[in-house]
Amino acid sequence: MNVTRGFTGRPRVHHPGLPPGQYDAGDDWPVLSAEVTPDLAPADWTFRIDGLVAEPRSWDWDEAHALPASVYEGDIHCVTSWSKFGVRFGGVSLDAFWDAVRPDASATHVVAYAHSGYTTNLPLADLTGGRAWIAWEYDGEPLAAEHGGPARLLVPHLYFWKSAKWIAGLRLLDHDEPGFWEQNGYHARGNPWEEQRYSGD
Amino acid sequence: MTETTAPDTAFSPPTRFAVPGRIAVSNRTAALWQTATLTEIRRETPVVSTFRFAVPGWAGHLPGQHLMLRLTAGDGYTAQRHYSLASPPDDAGHIELTLDHVEGGEVSGWFHTEARPGDQVEVRGPLSGFFAWPGDRPALLIGAGSGVVPLMSMLRHHRRRALNVPLRLLVSARGPEELIYAAEYGAETTAVFTRRAPEGMPVGRLSAAHVARVVAERPTGGWEAYVCGSNAFAEHASRLLVAAGQPVDRIRIERFG
To answer: Does the keyword Iron apply (chain B) (predicted)?
Structure first.
């Protein structure tokens, strides 16, 4: 252990929900997109799932909202080391979309892509079983554009760069294919509890 | 009847925004924590200082890249933060960070009140290739406050290598006393003061006219635009760039909250 002379850290109580290397951002919700925030109205938003699925299809805003509503209440964790406790997102569980497209047995990975052109890769298993959402509300209000509104992917058990803002689609593949940050040196999966921040962690 | 679409071998989403393929990131150096020894502290403004470190094993970086820095308390508690590199690549075995003294800041607070030459911290990096500029394309840099730090690494690189490729810097500060690196700017730089300006200079935020004037220079190959600052500033500056005709896929943004 390399103790830093004179460093004690801020007063702390151990929070069981705080992964290693993270701090509680409190009321802050930093914005960390690398691209220009797209000017995207709900009427122009579409969401498509294709690749290794039985029924590739697209949804527009109203079609997606006709699916059963689902809420995520819990925590989120950014690789830049802030975490945010007790957030509340409203949207639809990805399971409702999977029921419609029916992934092939050969599908193992997903590339999520945004209307901005941003991409990120995920194992399909991280997007099933009630652990991932398409989210369009935060705290009961429409999701702000700078946080990915009108709709973003939400995968709260992974670092937040996996929760692609301005989500446009998911393509199912039988292999892993690095996305934007993953090509820039970040970890392929990004589990905060294992500190999978960078490639090689 | 079911339809299965075969995935392309290399999937390209319908994108206007892509990773710069010309920049490679070393995964090996990013995974490694190294000891950095503080050698010098220079005051830049009343609340901003530059911290110079010796890192003998530093593999080098591209201007604009950042690192992860870690402090460890006696009880094993650690705090880590991302910081942009201020120094140019040609500073063998040394790196510099320029840090704001953030109110209540756990890590910046240690730097501004405790740190002294000889102290050791841990760093890993350089990280991320997106907000990086190797010096091969015209660069239009726009920063506010400490957002100028990664842009200064680019400007210093441009100077040290005596590069001919065009480079312009628009830098915003509240007042002259808060302008970081004030003595280093030259003809490539336009400073904008939002609260207090020197005699004869206007007070006001970065405007469409400032941005349009530089975008209109249209150097051969076009500008690669780099915007760094608070989220509010980044939103403002990137909208001005788009309005001035800068292609959206050639605007790279680094924001801090």
So the answer is: yes
How near does any CA of chain B get to the CA of A117, in Å? 4
What interface predicted TM-score (ipTM) does this complex get?
A: 0.89
Nearest to B42 by CA among B31, B50, B34: B50
Q: How far is B194 from chain A (nearest CA, A)?
A: 23
Give B5's contacts in chain A (Cβ within 8 Å).
50-53, 56
Q: What's the Cα-to-Cα distance from B256 to each of A108, B63, B132, B146, B197, rounded to whole Å?
A: 35, 18, 16, 10, 25
CA distance B59 to chain A (A): 15
**Along the 201 residues of chain A, how does pLDDT read in single tens digits?**
799 999 999 887 778 999 999 999 999 999 999 999 999 999 999 999 999 999 999 999 999 999 999 999 999 999 999 999 999 999 999 999 999 999 999 999 999 999 998 999 999 999 999 999 999 999 999 999 999 999 999 999 999 999 999 999 999 999 999 998 998 889 999 999 999 998 888
Best residue in A29, A35, A47, A115 for a mutation probing chain B (most B CBs within 10 Å): A35
Residue B167's identity, in one-letter code, is L
Global pTM value = 0.91
Based on the number of CB atoms within 10 Å of its own CB, is A193 exposed (0-12), middle (13-18) or buried (19 or more)?
Answer: exposed
The closest CB to that of B252, out of A4, A34, A172, belongs to: A34
